[in-house]
Amino acid sequence: MPPPLVDFPASVPQVSARRPLRRVSDRVPRARFISRRQKVPLQDPTSDSPPRPVEKAVILAAGFGDRLRPFTDDHPKCLVPVGGVRILNNTLRHLAAIGIKEVVIVVGHHRAEIEKFGATHLGMNMTYVVSEDFTTTNNIYSLWLARAHLTEDMLLLEADVFFERAVLDRLVTYGSGNLAVVSQHQSWMSGMVVSIDTNDRIQGLFDAAHQGRDFDYAKVFKTANLYLFRGEFLRRYFLPQLEAYIVSGDVNEYYESILQALGHRGKNNLRAVVCDDLKWYEIDDESDRLAAEYLFASQEERYEHICHQHGGYWRFGFVDHAYLYNPYYPPAPVFTHFEQHLRELVLEYPSGQDVMARLIGTLIDQPPSRLVVGNGASELIKIIAGHVAGSLICPVPTFNEYENAARAGEFVAFQLPAPSFELDVDALAEKAKSSGARVAVVVTPNNPTSMAVPRADLLRLAEQLQKFDCMLVVDESFIDFVADPEQASLAGHLGEFQNLAIIKSLSKAFGIGGLRLGYLLTANEAFGESVRKELHIWNVNSFAESFLRLAPRYRRQFKESCARVANDRDKLHDGLAAIEGMTVFRAEANFVMCRLPDSAPSAPEVTKRLFVRHNSYVKHCAGKSMPDADRYLRIASRTTPENIELVTALQQCLET
């Protein structure tokens, strides 16, 4: 039987003397607190005694959840759906499955919707504790309102955590002490973290206020807000400390502050239940909800989701053999610089186009007057193809964005012949002339074929196009991975041709896809100005500018990194070529194109199998303009160990 409750005076101190407070309300509503403690010795949390069964759970569900608006305008946060299942329904289903008999829910915002679960649900007795002050208090006050139920072994759960049942199974069978579910800290996590020793004892708890710039997240675990507390601990230590907070007016604190305070005194005896291999997600906003839907989706559902994405792959935890970048660059000092100057880079405006052109000019040894700097090459492609070019001709298959950006009816596709996919520049020039094209684009090395066009051929093409006033734009985004980049590039010939321009994305070779940097290089001032005038005043961000200021210091490291990529690519090429029936094309970029054996499934099917079975993602070429496009794969080279794993996985997918 719980100890009796007594009243405390309505007038209480407004501020705790222990630490400064940030809170909404300075007045504590009239409440009651436990005054008598049962002095029961705590169990040794490291003992081998079997876990005692737990039959009660307390769920905190009073909060407003303003970061999930507009959903929470009309519903409580805990009823937001994840993959079609509401968070609270998921929690209650799992509680019933592990044998919980009584559930206490602290309700507030739109409480009537939660109370619809009724007096019993899934065989569990349901009790609802109402917080009238949920807008001006935090979860420590919600827990205070439920204090009459904090006298026996119980689970404590936050109502915004979506988890699989296995998390609760592990929690209730882990041991006989006080337990907290934790996982190794990940970059997307925020809130309370803990440090643990080799026996899983929690040594320290650190709230956000104690996670400064130099905090080492590699050594801590994030709490999942799922706890198991033993009755003797609650009565002897937790409830008195909870009472002290409330009496002190600390109603806008988090209850983890109590665990921190008890930990400093060595009284929480809290052990970590590490669940790195299990699924849970705390949902505070729509971004969290979407991430949780991906986490709890089947691998087939995840594949369908990824197929409609255009980046952000790092959030999803698969091996990315689709996007094209240099895994060995930038060097560590660049990231250190970003970390040291993060505040300035976020708060301050970047420089304008003139400064950016000077910075890239320094990096590539070209006059700034010849440069136009874009927010990635994609911005420049959009301007050239969609605003400047008029009629544009381009060999296909190639990077689809040139066709996508062209104005309706003004893209001329020049089909590369299968099976070689080699460019006949004389035929291209003839087609450009007959079609009236004003701009011709050649990507070298090409995407997706990975084959480069010889420089001599491109110079001959520029000369032929010049005769009928057609610009040649050469996309050299992958040129740094060829055997001799300086000899392959046309940068040294710009002064010879007024109809020649180079476009280049820095994302691929420099490994900075997130910074969004690209440039147009041309000696044709009128053409350059026609592109420049379409840019807005601050089209390149401060992080990209900072990178450009640093990059000239690391020219040697850049060349070495590109050589490593080329070496890995060659090994990937050879590994793919060893697969029986596979046709593998000459690779000069940082990826390899191959044609699947005739007996194999289609490229889209193989791509799906690789993802579903092996969590690796490659690009199929079914959307490219080429014969039998659904028989081709484009595979980005990563490190050699990752490439070896990919080849092995691909072989398995072709066999079954």
Label this structure with key terms.
656 residues; alpha/beta; Spore Coat Polysaccharide Biosynthesis Protein SpsA, Chain A; Aspartate Aminotransferase, domain 2; seven-stranded mixed beta sheet; 34% helix; elongated
State the distance separating the first and last CA atoms. 63 Å
Oligomeric state of the chains present here: single chain
Considering the protein shown, what is the CATH homologous superfamily of the largest domain?
A: Spore Coat Polysaccharide Biosynthesis Protein SpsA, Chain A
CATH class of the largest domain: Alpha Beta
Q: What gyration radius follows from the Cα positions, in whole Å?
A: 31 Å
Q: Under CATH, the topology of the largest domain is which?
A: Spore Coat Polysaccharide Biosynthesis Protein SpsA, Chain A
Description:
The chain is of the alpha/beta class. It has 3 domains: 235 residues, Spore Coat Polysaccharide Biosynthesis Protein SpsA, Chain A (Alpha-Beta Complex); 113 residues, Aspartate Aminotransferase, domain 1; 222 residues, Aspartate Aminotransferase, domain 2 (3-Layer(aba) Sandwich). Helix content is 34%, strand content 19%. It contains 23 helices and 28 strands. Strands 3, 6, 7, 8, 9, 11, 12, 13, 14 and 15 form a 10-stranded mixed β-sheet that branches. A 7-stranded mixed β-sheet has the order 18-24-23-22-21-19-20, sandwiched between helices. Helix 6 packs across helix 7 and helix 21 runs parallel beside helix 23. The radius of gyration is 31 Å and the shape is elongated.
